[in-house]
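HUMAN: Mind sharing a backbone?

ASSISTANT:
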Amino acid sequence: MWAFLAPQIIKPPSSPTRRLFSTSRSSPKSPLCSLSSNKNQLIQSLCKQGNLKQAIQVLSQEPNPTQRTYELLILSCIGRNSLSDGLRVHRHLSDDGSDQDPFLATKLINMYLELDSIDDARKVFDKIRERTIYVWNAIFRALTLAGEGLEVLCLYRQMNRTEIQSDRFTYTFVLKACVASEASPELLTKVNEIHAHILRNGFESQVHIMTTLVDVYSWFWCVGYAANVFDKMPVRNVVSWSAMIACYANNGKPFEALELFREMMLETNDSFPNSVTMVSVLQACAALAALEQGKVLHGFILRRSLDSILPVINALVTMYGRCGKLELGQRVFDQTKKKDVVLWNSLISSYGIHGFGNKAIQLFKEMIDNGVSPSHVSFGSVLGACSHAGLVEEGKMLFESMVKEHGMYPTAHHYACMVDLLGRANRLDEATKIVEEMRIEPGPLVWGALLGSCRIHCNVELAERACRRLFELEPTNAGNYVLLADIYAQADMWREVKRVKKLLKARGLQKVPGRSWIEIERKLHSFMSVDEFNPHYEQLHALLFKLSTEMKEKGYVPRTDVVLYKLDEEEKERIVLGHSEKLAVAFGLINSNHVEPIRVTKNLRLCEDCHTFAKFISKFAEREILIRDVNRYHHFQNGACSCGDYW
């Protein structure tokens, strides 16, 4: 996406400094000039042949190296990845004053960036007196790619106090600098300022700048700002389309990502999707479990010969796994000859969310046996798989192997996986001990995992301890308040439930509403909990009521304890009957082929009543039902769930 951060190819005019060493064509060449010209040609020839050491030796005998000679020497140092040679060439430049040539200064800055010596790049910039826009852009680019975004913004303010005018490269580099550091409101304000500057100076027609702006707003989760920029772009290319689709896909708006992709495909110009586009669209399909649309995309990928690109293959494996078609993901994996760690991770994670912990561990070991070293993500995936399958001892062994066998220190994510693994197994004392003995500060992930475990086992005291930290670390995360209220409700502590709800309201927070999706004939249908405005609601509710009544005779007892209100049982039953996943399942029963499984995706954890209801439906209606919640897959068949009621 950031391909346009490549070094500029526009060459500024040779500086007056270099012209002091040039020879006029109209003057007759003296033997000395002829000798010098031959030395320059020899140095350049040696550089092109890869004989850098010999070229530097000849350089010491050349009194007047040309700009081209120095340029080739610098490029050769980059090609040989030799910082020591680069420093020697730089000394020659300094000795004859050529380091004041703006063109060569930009080359030196780029060289030091490539050789991971950003301090030397700073020295080049600090020393040069004539700072052209090319020199400024070179240091902006170098510092941005080195992760020194705040320094770039300071230098940018300094440049704006001079007479130097920003060009399209400047804006691209300084915008990227805003995301080279951790996101903060102050940096977003800076992005807004740069955006305004771009508009004032008439650069809104520059597709590279505006595409970068879309990317940056996406990084700050400002989807509305990004969409506004994209909508106003007079010219769009495949990169800008891909940037906006990725913005939607990465910010929890998969519907919008798929809709924009359809709009892109209807364009009559040459904006054909590339591999980057396809990765984002497949990600959106995975988020919605849109299997049929994913299959169509797979066909497009094959026709466009994009199936040899590893990021696309990874996205395909993930998509099939998250759409409940593990066998198709496995087939894509098996057909791939060159498997990197990301591809292995995709397959391990897919088996993990389906509850196949032993298979995930087997794949993890196969990966290592095939000479692929596990990454931090690999351990996160396999530990998550152990957690979903209740493989406590296996998970503990894998966690310990991170340091002992692979020299990798656990991150907060790995500690959170262990807390979740032990907590689900009702080994809360061990989970608490892990939190207390962590080598790093426990963050929201770890405390959140502990709170989730407390909800499963209704441990009020430990939940209150976890929430005290979570309310400090994530004061605006409504989910933590809701979980605590849920635990209080399970413990029949209704006064505390009321207190937490008042606190939630006082802080202006709202519970995330339950939402479920189902794909019927390649069309996605969305349902909200108790969605009385849905045109299908009456029909669906009537079917659910009928099924519920009949299933009660078979032993179904509604779990009304999931309702966090003191209401009569009839009203509580009405509420749980209107949960979004039940509405989606009912819609699938009415509109889908009896042979095909019903596939539903939910944005929150599947509640206990919906879990029980789906088990009864799978047996009562003789339908296979797959529900993917925020944590894992539940595969219901013949009255049983693949999770074994362990989730």
